[in-house]
Specification:
Order of helices and strands: HEEHEHHEEEHEEEEHEHEEHEEH
Structural class: alpha/beta
Distance between the termini: 26 Å
Number of domains: 3
Low-confidence stretches: 1-12, 286-305
Amino acid sequence: MPRRRASPKRRGSNLSQPTVSRTISVLETELGVSLLNRTTRVVSLTDAGADYLARVEPILEAVDDANHAVRGSPELRGVLKLGLTTTFGNRAVIPRLPGFMAQHKALKIEVAMNDVSIDAVSQGIDLAFRPGEFPDMTAVTRRVASIQQVLVASPCYLRKSGAPERPEHLDRLQIIHGPLGVDAGWSLAKGNERVDLKPHAALRLNASEGAIAAAVAGLGVLAVGICSVYPELRSGALVRVVPDWKMAQIDIHAVYPAGRHAKPAARAFVNYFVEDLARNPIPEFEMTTSPSVDHTGGQIAKAAK
C-alpha cells in the first residue's frame, strides 16, 4: 500500500495540533502499533495506519451523514468520491459536474478514472459508473443509460483489408480488444437472422481511449459503445463496419459499494445525472429510469475520541 503523507491536524478540526498528537499517541498505545512515521520534516502513515484509516473513514463519514440528516439541512457537505471509466467519464459525467457543484458549494468531489475493474470499498469510492454486467452481486446498482454497441474501423484499414459485407467475413480482419473485451463473443442481428462470433484479438488494450486511437490508426476493427466514438464517426476518422447488422446494447450502471449505506451526495448526484441527461441527451444514448436494484436481496484522531 503506498504511503500517504499525513497532517497531525485534520483539516477543519477544532482540535489543536498538540491535542491531536497526544490523542494519536494514546491510540497507538492502545492498539500496540505505530500509525504514523514521524520525522522532523514530515509525518506519514505507516502501513498499519493507512489500513486503520481506510477502515474508520467510512464510519466517520457515516456519522457525519447521520448528523447532517438529523439536522434536516438540504446542503450536501464532505467529499464525494467518484469512480469513472475514461471515455464515459470524459464525455458524459464530468461535463455535468459544474451544474451539480454549483448547487452544492460545500461539497467537494474527487474522481478516480480507469477502465479496469475497481474495488470500490478498498479505494473509498462512494459512487461508480460502470458499463456492462456488474460482477459484484452484493452491490446496489441502478441502470442509468444504455448505449448501442457498434463495430468501427478506419477507412484506410478497410480500403487495405476490404470491407466485410457480412459478419462472417470479420474473421479475415484484425480485431482490437478494448476494455469491454471480445472474449464473450459478438452477436449481430439483421431482421430475423442472427450471427454469433468469437473473434480472436490481434491487439488488446485496457483503456478505451487507447483502443479508439488504435482503431483510428488503422490497426483493426473495434467493438465499442457508439457514444465513445461519436466524434470520430462524425469527422470520418472511423466508419461503421457491417452497419446493417445490430449489436447488443451496453447498460451503464451507477454502483454503490457493497456493505456501506449510500451517501446522500451519491444518490443526489445519480438523480441529477439521470435528470440532466434526459434534458440534454448525448447522441446515441438511450435513457432509462430504472429504480435502484439490490442484487443481494485528522481522521485517526477523531476515531480515537
